Each structure stands twice: as C-alpha cells, then as structure tokens.
C-alpha cells in the first residue's frame, strides 16, 4: 500500500505530531518528572505513581513509534529508497521494536516486582521515607535478612536497567528522526 505521491499537509502534520509527542513524553518522564517525584514523594507513593504512569507512557510511546514507521513507510516505497531513507525506516523499526519489548515485558515486570517489594517493606514499617536514596541502611538490612526481598531487589535492578536502556535507545532513535526531519524541512 505504499505510494510514491507527496504526503499531504495533514499526513506531514500527523507525522510531526506523533514524533514530537513521543519525544516530549520521553524527555518529561525520563529526565524531569522522575527526579521531581524522587525528591518530593515517599517511596511507596512514588512507586505507585510510576506503576500507573510508566505502562501508559510505554504503550503510548509504542503506538507513536508504530504510526511513525507506518506513515513513513507508506510514503517511501522500498523500491525507491535511497540509503538515508532506508536508514530512517530502520531507525523507526528499531524504535517500534524496542518500545514494544519495553512496554510488554520490562515495564510490566518492573511494576509487578515493585508491588511485591512494597508489601514486604510495608510489613517491616518501611516505604514512607522521602526520596529513593533515604534510609538506605534499613533497605540494605532488609536485603540481608529477607531472601525473597533480596531476590526481588536484584530482579528489579535488572529490569529497571533493561527498561532504561530501551528507553535511552528510543530517545536516541527519536532524536535521530527529529534531526532527519529538521534536515529535510524546506523552510522554517
């Protein structure tokens, strides 16, 4: 269903809207809201908000990435692609794939593990301290004394790391895509 026609203004606007929405969400969720919430909310409130916000963010990001790829591919037939256009499709494809894996697996596992950890922390009277870096000694002691908590903590660290790497990959893909679009603007 690809076409060699020039995209309409509406299609161009939709592509730009999807890309900029995803980029804006990434910057806000990754670099701004996380740091603000970490410094002003207790651990369990922060975790609860993250467990509701992050899956929505990841799924919406996946949808934006998918529609970006679809729109771009429709207006760039494979038999007419130059090297830069082929690389742009590859970048969109990587973004879709990584965002989907993050949304369907890493983000989901992180939320589930965090909920299990919160139950153990609450039973021990923990979780009401402000900031994720406060009262580290109590959480370290809990890791030493509770095998299940230690296992959950190491799994959470792994899934957060993988989710963060996926998120950074998508940020890089979207940054490249924004640069590509800016480079191809005829005027500002």
Please indicate the percent range of residues in DSSP E strands (runs of 2 or more). Answer: under 5%
Number of strands: 0
Distance between the termini: 31 Å
Overall mean pLDDT score?
Answer: 89
User: What is the helical fraction, as a range of percent?
Assistant: over 70%
Helix segment count?
A: 5
Reported for the largest beta sheet, the result is: none
Poorly predicted spans: none
Rounded Rg: 20 Å
What does the overall shape look like?
A: elongated
The secondary-structure class comes to mainly alpha
SSE ordering? HHHHH
* Oligomer class: single chain
How would you describe this structure in keywords?
mainly alpha, elongated
Report on the architecture of this protein.
There is one protein chain. Helices cover 81% and strands 0% of the residues. The two termini are 31 Å apart. It is mostly helical and 188 residues long. The longest helix is centred in the middle third of the chain and has 41 residues.
In short:
Helices cover 81% and strands 0% of the residues. By secondary structure, the chain is an all-alpha fold.
